[in-house]
Amino acid sequence: MKLSNSYAILTQNNSNTEPLVQHLLRNHAVSGLTELQPLKGLLFSRSEINRYMDEEERHDIKVLAKDNEQALKTMSSGEQKKALLNYLLQQDPGFIILVNPYDNLDVATQAKLKEQLLDIASNKIVVQLVSRLDDILPNTVHFFKLDGNNLLKYDSPDAFWKENKTESISFNGTIPPPISKIDVDTKELVSFKKVSVGFDGRQVLDNIDWTIKKGEFWQLIGPNGSGKSTLLSMITGDSHKGYGQDLTIFGQKKGSGESVWDLKQKIGYYTPAITNKFRGYHSLENMIISGLHDSIGLYVLPTDSEKQLANQWLNLLNLKDRKNDHFRDLSTGDKRLVMMARAMVKHPPLLILDEPTAGLDDYNAHLFVALVNKIARESDSTIVFVSHRKEPQLEPEYIFELHPSENGSKGAVFNI
């Protein structure tokens, strides 16, 4: 079996990947990648899945899922990627471009896909565009870095790994205290006791026991479809599935007349999708102050104390000189830091971070995780960090892991 060349191109959140991908697919000459020029290339990416999904919905033309009764949009991320990869291999391309292939996949599915890609790379040219060093296949021969639009070639693997290793990151200063403290009388903020949940006759959660106490730092993990989002929506009050269950939030039994608004006042919540709601011309200062009012944008005149608090957070994030800059103009990594400060500005009793590092490169992921660890050490807020990916720098005290079964996912608690 011929061992073909494998290429790794490390990308950053400011990398402009689209022109490079199009040059390769159109057989244009790219320095360092001239071996690919006469060959037919195909693309394995989230954007390709979305393109076929759009085609299926608009014109009722099934390409990736033509042998499957399921519509592409109803499949899990893992199933969609499997269908795309099989379709590409059937066309016997000269090379395949992989763009962050493990995004949105749970750990087990990532491992299966990596094994399959390793097998493919043993007899076909694979070009990997990845934002995480851990995602690079071990049999990779050639190494590059895409810095903006500039493709940098490395003479040796040693030079590549040495230069791009992310060192330990820390923040100077301390977490700013809140203007006024939100008091919660009970020590147990969340308590699930034998909670089971199903949808359309399918059991999702089976007898879940989970207690979250003041000041704890939890990581919630589990495969795609195991019920992580269902658990979170029951905590935040966005799901009616908590009614009739032995579920207590901030000392109040679910269904005992508690106000969803009162719940949300005590919870800070962040997921990258929230960032897309802030498309206007919001200054960084106003972005953080809006977290005090739970609003998309700031519609009241901020007080001096609110401005002072926002600037303390911006100073911590090394963004104080940019307080009047527009949020929409920030890099992806800086946007995540500002949104984290916005979620934390009131020091909510419970802070839920739902896939907060998804789509970040190594440096920005490390930076975000360093801020989370600092908040855990220096505040009384309880943290629940949800992720598919294992962030090696994250320092949770406990892990709650969901294990799927025929009767729904069961939960297991691990002390770190």
UniProtKB/TrEMBL annotation:
Domain ABC transporter intervals: 190-416
InterPro entries to which the protein is assigned, alphabetical: AAA+_ATPase, ABC_transporter-like_ATP-bd, Metal_Ion_Import_ABC, P-loop_NTPase
Keywords noted in UniProt: ATP-binding, Nucleotide-binding, Transport
GO molecular function, one term: ATP binding
Gene3D superfamilies linked to this entry: P-loop containing nucleotide triphosphate hydrolases
Parts forming coiled coils: none
SMART domains: AAA
Signal peptide: none
Similarity comment: family membership: Belongs to the ABC transporter superfamily.
Name of this chain's protein: ATP-binding cassette domain-containing protein
